[in-house]
Amino acid sequence: MKSRRELMLGAAGVGTLLMATSAQARTMTVSASPDYIEGDGWATTDVTTATVSGGTPPYAYQWVHTGGTGYVQANSGSDASTNFYWDGPTGGPPKFSRWVCVVTDAASQTATSNTVTVNFMPPA
Q1: What burial class does residue 20 get, using C-beta atoms within 10 Å of its C-beta: 0-12 exposed, 13-18 middle, 19+ buried?
Q2: Beta-bridge partner residues of 26
Q3: How far from 109 is each of 13, 20, 26, 88, 115, CA to CA, in Å?
Q4: How would you write the pLDDT of the chain (124 residues) with one tens digit per residue?
Q5: Which residue among 99, 115, 117, 123 sits deepest, i.e. has the most Cβ atoms within 10 Å of its Cβ?
């Protein structure tokens, strides 16, 4: 028969294991797909979607421009899914723009998606 001390230590170990497992389950990751899309003229691109794994719902989404031309804009900058549009001058060679989706969960944890590259042919 186990002593009271052995039972308490065993219970504490289980509690620690449960806390560690619970903390691991809350770790959040974000992936955006597709990670390369093209636009042409004044039309919007196909949709890209950020998918969250883990964390604590609900989630807040923010599409953030990280490089390339500033003339490409996110159509739905605070949604899980967005497409992009051209907001610049006409003509010129194709322009690249890079974006990530930053997600914040209900516990204020943040995670950033992989980069989405948008290749846009400006309108003629």
Answers
A1: exposed
A2: none
A3: 27, 17, 9, 35, 19
A4: 555 545 444 545 444 333 434 444 479 999 999 999 999 999 999 999 999 999 999 999 999 999 999 999 999 999 999 999 999 999 999 999 999 999 999 999 999 999 999 999 999 9
A5: 99
- pLDDT attached to residue 22: 44
| DSSP annotation string for 81-112 | EE-EEE-S-S-SS-EEEEEEEEEE-TTS-EEE
* Structure-token match 């990280």, residue found: 66
Nearest alpha-carbon partner for 37 in 10, 63, 62, 16: 63
Q: 69: Cβ–Cβ under 8 A, 6 or more apart, which residues? A: 88, 95, 96, 97, 120
First-to-last alpha carbon distance for the chain, in angstroms, is: 85
